[in-house]
Amino acid sequence: MFDGISRSIDEFGNGILTALNDIQGVFGKELNVATPIKNSILDLVGNTPLIRLNKIGSHIPGIQFYLKAEFQNPTGSLRDRSSVGMIRDAERRGKLKPGSTILITGTGSSSVSISWAGRTLGYKVICALPKSIPVTETYKLTHYGAEIEYTDLDPLDFVKQKSKDTNYWYPDETRNMANPNQHFNTTGPEIYRDLVGKVDFLITGGGTGASVTGVGRYLRSMKESRTTKVLLSGFENSIFHDHFILKKKLNLPEIFDPTVVDEFLSISKEVAIHYQSDLMEKEGLPVGITTGMIVAAAISYAEKLPVDSFVTEQAKEPKNFVILSPDRE
Questions:
Q1: What is the CA radius of gyration of the chain?
Q2: Can you give the pTM of this predicted structure?
Q3: CA count, 13 A, side-chain hemisphere, 40
Q4: Partners of 103 in the beta sheet?
Q5: Is residue 102 a contact partner of residue 159, using CB atoms and an 8 Å limit?
Q6: In terms of C-beta density within 10 A (0-12 exposed, 13-18 middle, 19 or more buried), how is residue 92 classed?
Q7: What is the dihedral of CA 71, 72, 77, 82, to 10 degrees?
């Protein structure tokens, strides 16, 4: 009798385990369930969490702010996504092959991310810089894998000239559609998934315009988030400030789709620094000044909305405001 009961319990338990394994097999990869071991550091690019802001913005009724924590990427930057995406795209197109060299310019977060991604994926990365640049500004680049080549030419001209040789490849992130496409294929779906399609507001920084273009296009392509308000923010000296606020005719990045943007918000450096400090002090988030700028813009925008618009008429649920956080302190 007891043996029969024991067998039944075992069979029931095994059935549950089998069902759980089947569920994980179907959803595990998409939802990142029970995968504590990563095959390489590249598996840590993307799939970043949404972090609820509990204090900043709490004075605004009916809105819940979420920070999309792109600072959790390996180099602490949103650019890690696009760097890996552009390199993988170049590989598929035959532009990058074993033994190829990646060419970059500048010392910013984009160059750091491409240096890291390129070297991690097995490529030599050369960064062209003017001879006048202080050596201290190159330390981070070399730490992440780039070799520095000083030139008397304009670094961009040097890179474009060198990339005529098919053994070299230049990402050209302001013209490379693999940049916004990476956000369309990864960042947008992650946000949509985590909020089950309920994304009422999205705000990003400017940069190349890749993230707002890619994520904005994805959310607008989905039925549940088709009415998402897509906002872009930037510093007062940015090219986007000059375009949207000052109405100057400028050559914007080719990959940027201005039709995705519902509104642009301009923020001063002083206000951005204030919010950067607040994010650390009040939320414990060690983010960069660009995140401070974007959060400041989000709060400024939300404070001006009519109170009645904060809460849906039927469910009376808070509206979700997603803030793309691109940098770490």
A1: 23
A2: 0.86
A3: 5
A4: 126
A5: no
A6: exposed
A7: -130
Residue 107 DSSP label: S
**Hey, what are 19's tokens?**
């069902």
Q: Which residue has the tokens 């993230």?
A: 211
DSSP string covering 9-66, please? HHHHHHHHHHHHHHHHHHHHHHHT-S--S-SSGGGGSS-PPEEE-SSTTTTSTTEEEE
Pairing of strands 263-267, 229-235: parallel
Q: Judging by DSSP bridges, how do beta strands 63-69 and 50-52 pair with one another?
A: antiparallel
| Tens-digit pLDDT string for the chain (329 aa) | 445 544 554 555 555 545 555 554 544 444 455 567 899 999 999 999 999 999 999 999 999 999 999 999 999 999 999 999 999 999 999 999 999 999 999 999 999 999 999 999 999 999 999 999 999 999 999 999 999 999 999 999 999 899 999 999 999 999 999 999 999 999 999 999 999 999 999 999 999 999 999 999 999 999 999 999 999 999 999 999 999 999 998 899 999 999 999 999 999 999 999 999 999 999 999 999 999 999 999 999 999 998 765 555 545 789 999 999 999 97
Q: What is the DSSP letter of 136?
A: G
Pairing between β-strand 263-267 and β-strand 50-52 as defined by DSSP bridges? unpaired
State residue 255 phi and psi, 5-degree precision. Answer: -80, -15
